[in-house]
Amino acid sequence: MGDVEIPALVKQIVRGLRGSAFLATVLATSFMAASHEKAIFPFDYKADYTDLMLFKAFLGSNIAASLYSFFFVCLPPKSLLWRLAIVLDVIMFGILAAMDSAAMAAAYLHKNGDSQALWPPICSQVPTYCYRVILAISIGLGGVFMFLLIIIFSISAILNPLILV
């Protein structure tokens, strides 16, 4: 069984999706890194993304995904590293989906609190912080969706190239 030739249109679509994934992960990273605010009333509190390890992991996974996407957008089409792309795309998709889900759970706790753990909601005191965190997570989910589309296009082009001709 020889190498499968992927149509040029599919390659262009996947390259465009990689560029979109790069932009989404860079934006999610920048919004999360900029999420900090200080509240004075009713108590002196500084909300920052470094308060929770989940937000740090979200930031790290988006940095890794943006570097990965940028590397593969700039990779020459004839490089042998493209053979690893689908496997690495699936791994990156899994990491991003897990970190976005964990960050979403932490943002839910920030917004609603947890009465069992006596964790009060903080979004009423630091609304800009919560807005930036939710925006970063939403944009990060866009990056997850881009990676899902990359995987679907790549696998369908390899398994059944006649569909996309």
From TrEMBL:
Keywords: Cell membrane, Membrane, Transmembrane, Transmembrane helix. The chain crosses the membrane at residues 21-41, 53-74, 86-109, 129-159. PANTHER family: CASP-LIKE PROTEIN 1U1. This is CASP-like protein. The keyword Ubl conjugation does not apply. Signal peptide: none annotated. Belongs to the Casparian strip membrane proteins (CASP) family. InterPro entries: CASP/CASPL, CASP_dom, CASPL. Residues 13-144 form the Casparian strip membrane protein domain. Its main location: membrane. It comes from Salix suchowensis. It holds the Pfam family CASP_dom. Homodimer and heterodimers. It is found in: Cell membrane. It is a multi-pass membrane protein. NCBIfam families: A_tha_TIGR01569 (TIGR01569). The keyword Transmembrane applies.
